[in-house]
Amino acid sequence: MKKIGFIGLGIMGKPMSKNLLKAGYSLVVFDLNKPAVEEVVAAGGEAGSSPKDVASKSDVIITMLPNSPHVKEVVLGANGVIDGAKAGSIVIDMSSIAPLVSREIGEKLAEKNIRFMDAPVSGGEPKAIDGTLSIMVGAKEADFEECVPILKCMGASAVLCGDVGAGNVTKLANQIIVAVNIAAMSEALVLATKAGVDPESVYKAIRGGLAGSTVLDAKAPLVMARKFDPGFRINLHIKDLNNILETGHEVGAPLPLSASVMEMMQSLKVDGHGDKDHGGLVMFYEKLANTQVKKD
Ligand code: NAD
């Protein structure tokens, strides 16, 4: 069985690493947050002293970090994975980062014969705990096939979308659809409320038709119950929208809807809502219309 290194034990990385332990893999872990490391060590992992140390003890090194700069620092920086990893080992970055940075990291690692794949996830903390994440992968086919048994310990599905970078392009597409859907739902529910129609009746009436969606079913009940604890924080979606717009500009794909939702989220951040769930986007529309969407 391959030895696995795991770096980044946050909301997502901690349960994902525990699922690898449950599946019988031996794990060396690292995070700047010591209590998180202690928790995974208590579950059977070994603590590494740096990304370099973790990499030197592993065949496969998984990273689950906030954004591109963190992954670059951990993989390519001082005492980084690149300094410890053996030739032939595989780095799997499961963070959601800019696809162009994934490609850059892949190229730097390839110079040392270290293989790389980007494998961001969708599903959030509950699915990270259950091991039922959706994993979207950018990799060489042979590297992907070799890692499927590992990915399947953390996800219900792992789909190869193309070469390195394709996983994060897919994740950005996912995040555009989620963000714009939440904005459309918010616009619709605020209109209904302002027009004097119970938003719950509207939701029940339309959820089975063409306007129905996973986003509508996940978020409309929470909006009407005024539950905005995360979930997926507005600040994290702003991070993804930054990567979406940057990538769109670099490849020549104008993204007017993403740009609009980005400004809505920026406004909520200014109002102190950055740590609330992205379903809280409805508050932007509520402020414009001076109303509140809730059950009658
Ligand atoms: P988090 O902030 O909870 O965890 C990140 C962890 O990385 C923290 O424990 C932090 O201490 C650690 N870290 C940061 N810099 C480090 C460094 N230099 N060295 C070692 N450790 C370092 O974030 P999260 O919610 O677990 O998200 C991780 C990634 O997964 C993000 O890219 C996010 O967009 C993506 N994601 C999150 C969710 C979600 O619902 N939370 C869902 C899908 C995808």
Summarize the structure.
The chain is an alpha/beta fold. 53% of the residues lie in helices and 13% in strands.
Q: Layout of helices and strands, plus pairs?
A:
Layout: E1 4-7, H1 13-22, E2 27-30, H2 34-42, E3 46-47, H3 51-56, E4 60-63, H4 68-76, H5 81-84, E5 90-93, H6 99-110, E6 115-118, E7 121-122, H7 124-130, E8 133-138, H8 141-151, E9 155-162, H9 166-194, H10 199-206, H11 214-224, H12 234-251, H13 256-270, H14 282-289
Parallel strand pairs: 1-2, 1-4, 2-3, 4-5, 5-6, 8-9
Antiparallel strand pairs: 7-8
Helix pairs in contact: 1-7, 4-6, 9-11, 9-12, 9-14, 12-13
Bound molecules: nicotinamide-adenine-dinucleotide.
Nicotinamide-adenine-dinucleotide (NAD) binds next to α4, β7 and α7.
The total count of strands amounts to: 9
Which small molecules are bound? nicotinamide-adenine-dinucleotide
Question: How many alpha or pi helices?
Answer: 14
CATH architecture of the largest domain: 3-Layer(aba) Sandwich
The description of the largest β-sheet is: 6 strands, parallel
Low-confidence stretches: none
Strand order of the largest sheet: 3-2-1-4-5-6
Counting structural domains, the number is 2
Descriptive account of the structure:
With 296 residues, this protein is α/β, with parallel strands linked by helices. The chain folds into two domains: 3-162, NAD(P)-binding Rossmann-like Domain (Rossmann fold), CATH 3.40.50; 169-289, N-(1-d-carboxylethyl)-l-norvaline Dehydrogenase, domain 2 (Orthogonal Bundle). The protein is 53% helix and 13% strand. It has helices at 13-22, 34-42, 51-56, 68-76, 81-84, 99-110, 124-130, 141-151, 166-194, 199-206, 214-224, 234-251, 256-270, 282-289, and strands at 4-7, 27-30, 46-47, 60-63, 90-93, 115-118, 121-122, 133-138, 155-162. The chain has a six-stranded parallel beta sheet with strand order 3-2-1-4-5-6, with helices on both faces. The chain has a three-stranded mixed beta sheet with strand order 7-8-9. It is elongated and about 65 Å long. The chain binds nicotinamide-adenine-dinucleotide. Nicotinamide-adenine-dinucleotide (NAD) binds at residues 7-13, 30-33, 36, 64-67, 70, 73-74, 95-96, 121-122, 124-125, 232, 236.
